[in-house]
Amino acid sequence: MKIELIKNRISSEQYEVLVNEKIAELRPAQEKAVKKGLLEGKNLLVCTPTASGKTLIAELACFKAVFERKGKAVYIVPLKALASEKYNDFKRKYGKKAKIALSIGDSDSSDSYLANYDVIITTSEKLDSLIRHKISWLPEIKVVVVDEVHLLNDAKRGPTLEIILTILKHLLKKAQIIALSATIGNPKELAEWLDAELVEDDWRPVKLEKGVYFGGEIEFH
Q1: What is the DSSP string of 184-195?
Q2: Nearest to 72 by CA among 103, 47, 51, 44
Q3: Which helix (H) or strand (E) holds 131?
Q4: Which end of the chain has fewer surrounding CB within 10 Å, N or C?
């Protein structure tokens, strides 16, 4: 799908960013996401290989809400390092057009300054803390992105993430949820729990091959 085909369905600000990034065509998973209601606010569970374009799917949802003045977007990642990476990437691309914040610090702080930002990148633990501090801007959230959503099954991080999603689903009934993962064992069940459309695809930019390294040589199978 050529990017021009969605030009009238996204803001001019976002389209300009896509052009600047030299994105001329949507990848298979991105096209499927658009066809399943990404730009109409539908919840999506995207289960596709690494580097297949999941982040752009999340970006399209986040910045559509922001540029159309619908509300804020929260991008949840499992690690502080990944949060910083996403923040730097979003800041580079969208920093002149939207206010982007990184919130991964003191878990006992409500970070009241976040009320002035459009996109907030954070970890599940920090967002849990923010919710417990009864942040005033919670109702303004229109898009929730959950990266590495398969960590719901993680013994350490899973319970916090599940509680957060349960709370957000209850409090923000009209918010769009975009859940991303490369590996999910029960995608249909998870999509049903999230009340989301399932987007699956096996396309990857580089073919994945298996091989055995022995004696300085790799034998592929």
Answers
A1: -S-HHHHHHHHT
A2: 103
A3: helix 124-132
A4: C
Q: Residue 215, class by beta-carbon neighbours within 10 Å (0-12 exposed, 13-18 middle, 19+ buried)? A: exposed
d(CA 35, CA 16): 22
For residue 192, count other CB atoms closer than 10 A to its CB: 12
Domains and CATH numbers, the chain: 27-204 (3.40.50.300)
This prediction has a pTM of 0.90
* Contacts (Cβ under 8 Å, ≥6 apart) of 192: none
**Would you call 174 helix, strand, or coil by DSSP?**
coil
Q: How do residues 61-91 score in pLDDT, each as one tens digit?
A: 999 999 999 999 999 999 999 999 999 999 9
SS3 state of residue 200: strand
Residue partners of 171: CB distance under 8 A and separation at least 6:
138, 139
The continuous run of DSSP H or E covering 42 comes out as: none
